[in-house]
Records
---
Amino acid sequence: MSPSFALLLPLLLPLIRAQVPHWGPCPEPSVQATFNIKQFMGRWFEVAKLPAQFEKGRCIETNFTMKADSTIRVVSSEILKGECRRIEGIGVTEDLKNPAKLGISYSYVLPYSPYWILATDYVNTALVYSCTDVLRLFHVDFAWILSRTRTLPGASVEEAKDVFVKNNIDVSRMVSSKQQGCDSTPWDRAL
């Protein structure tokens, strides 16, 4: 182990424990061909995900709105301990030749994180993947199954998982998101 890696390891351990780490660099999955960013805009509910340290609540959803400067306003929310928590970020198309590869940042001091749309029909489901290499030794990835409604039939979830698997993305630790009792909360009506 190199001395620099040994120094970085204590800083990386909390990140590694909370996520799903894998040896080697990030996979390069196929993304949605002929992706239409305007059709993707709007409200998406999280149906299933790989565990993520930054998502601890229930009723997780994200609303995407195109801004006049062609950036995307990204507002994510969840209910945690009975309170609505929201965070606002900016999304960009990082490569105009490949518009399904978005980048999202929730902080002006942090770089954009990959937010790749692997597949979507725009009206029912979207499959999103994000991955970060750590020194090219291992990677930490995230995967989400999103829906325009709070639930999807089990068969649709299994079909979505198959798309991830065909792209060499391990979803064996994917969990269902908690979307029960969300529409009765006051904050939901305010969105």
---
Amino acid sequence: MFRLVQRCCFHTPFKLQKLTDPRLLLYGKNKTTCSSLGLHLQRDMCLLSRSPSLSPASVHAIKPQAFHTSLPFFKKKTPKESETEDTGILQQSMKSLKDSPKPALYLSLAGLIPFVSVPLSMAIQGTYYPELAFAQITYGAVTVSFLGGMRWGFAVPENSPAKPDWLNLANSTVPPLFAWQALLFKDITHGAIMLVIALGIALHYDISLLPTYPRWFKVLRVAGTVVMVISLLATAALKTISEEQLSNSRNKWQNTK
């Protein structure tokens, strides 16, 4: 019975079964029998270690893969990858500007001349002119009103993806209201800040709320808004510098008296 169990469960050869008889293990005194038994056991252990079920290849095959399941967005980007992404965005933006229709591109660039010329001329001459600053604020208010009303023209046509609902039509009146408020301020600085807010609101409408605009138009809107904001802030800064210089000169003149 013991031999049958060994043959079925351990698949040991017949010679090993004879050598593993209990009588030989308990009462055998022959040294050659013990040595041969040890050799047979070592050989069978080697065979078992080389069996396909315990081979190293199978062990590596069943290793869990949980250690390599880190999500890609948790991995930190190298500086080279971020630089390539930034350059890719800039290249796409420049390509979009080049692909824009020529009338839209040239008219947009020409519309930025009144914004840029006012602070540039005052900086070159080194003198602040309130009349030029007010003319810039007036032109900025007209531009903001045009950008707000442009949304009506996009939502009114029948085949337009934007519906003429309260959201589109009411939001288009917000930039003109800010522009009107900018003209009511007597201080140029306050008017410039109000126009900057109105330009930001109009840009948010065109970029976020109306995604059906073409890419070239969005890039053109961003570039134009940046130039207009910088020009308005430059005029406000020149006004502040001129007021400080005027106050310092007055203090010196009073001290001399």
---
Amino acid sequence: MGLKEEFEEYAEKAKQLPENTSNDDKLILYGLFKQATVGNVNTSRPGMFNMRDRAKWDAWKAIEGKTQEEAMNDYITKVKQLQEAASS
């Protein structure tokens, strides 16, 4: 299985993470997913009254410069960590 297929598999698994997954972890996954699928941030930062989208944008911006392959690998690793934490 190639990296892209494995990434897509773990993107599906991420949807089944428990409800109590922290917002910080969700933001990390969001940033890695966007970097892996889109690349560097290509939009302007949302306004200060749009806190949710602003946090998501910041999470994506924080990993700017990672290659798409690095982001895919990091995403897979993070989902595995969260799955292990949820099952223990």
---
Amino acid sequence: MSASSAVQQLVLYSYWRSSCSWRVRSVLALKAIPYEYRAVSLYTGEQHSEAFKTVNPAGMVPTLLVPTKDGKHETLFESLAIIDYLEQTHPQPSIYPTDPIQRAKVIAVVESIVSGIQPLQNLGPMNKAAEFAGGSKAKAVEWNQYWISTRFATLEGILQGLSGRYTVGDQLTLADICLVPQVYNALRYNVQLDSYPLIKRLYEQLLATEECIIKAKPENQVDSDDFKERKLAGY
């Protein structure tokens, strides 16, 4: 877990089931950007280790190391910041529409997912919800189900006026790349999608047809076979 050696290409610190990391992996795949994958176990708390803190003091994934001309590297964190860097440095294919209004709508959908839904499923909030419920893991799962269902109901209504073939219009965008991991999380916590037919249709279509999202899905990552970790948290 060291970044002391010279970074020759992009290095992504990731965890297989991290939805934030899935977003970044999808963009890397879409733009065909080569990178080295380094796994960080969230369930064993590896992100809080002193070794990883030397890589990223924030102690989170995804973290991207970017090589510099002087043989060193820059460290980027937060999925949307990393994705913005990738879009700026590898603009094609773009993850945004060219029309400014449509671009703004994509960003609005992205924010509704990235800020309004996904953070509530992080291990920290879930563990705290369980703690407030007397240590009940079931109550923590109910917490997730409530917030996902409530926010999905709102998102379903929003997408009625935005979606075409894809989440916003007829072009694959960052909205799609953020939607899929969130729906994956919803299914993981047994949220039924029948009440959200548009979200369900988009999810199933994207996960079946978009190679960049398929390549980046959790089960296709090198650290996905560590099933022991899934049992440690009790979820």
